[in-house]
User: Fold this.
Amino acid sequence: MPTRISTQQEKPSMVFVSVTRLRLKSPFYLPVFMWNNFLTIWQITNTPGFLGGKVLRDAKQTFWTMTAWEEQAAMKIFRNSGTHRSVMPKIQDWCDEASVVHWKQEDSNLPDWGDVHHRLVTEGFVTRLSNPSPAHLQQNIPAPTSSQSLPLRPRKNNAATL
Assistant:
């Protein structure tokens, strides 16, 4: 019996992109935040399914993180484990602004921060915080003033147990 050849091309899998923007409400939280940020970045780069990302330290104690994942499930495994899971509840007290946006795209090329800001404003949502700023309450998200970001790359052996 002849083998049937499909004329349909396989649809490429979509890359899941996640962005967070956090603003610390006081410089008092900066040392503990930076330590946990370092541990969280280590966790990201060692999580299976992480494709790449970048972080940006912006003005007024504001921090942006953009990550690309093979699929949403890989990001959720990262989000719900390790340092990230233990530090997430503290963000409610440490920050006066926090917002998140997710989307799917066809490739792992990361957009520039201007495009990310546009998505955060038009598609994102704010996080519940203990003491939000007026801008947070009005969902007024300022654009980043810096474009100097640090790239994140997956470790070659990112199958580490976290």
Summary: The first strand starts at residue 15 and ends at 24. Residues 30-45 form the longest helix (16 residues). The chain has one domain: 15-152. The chain has a mean pLDDT of 90.
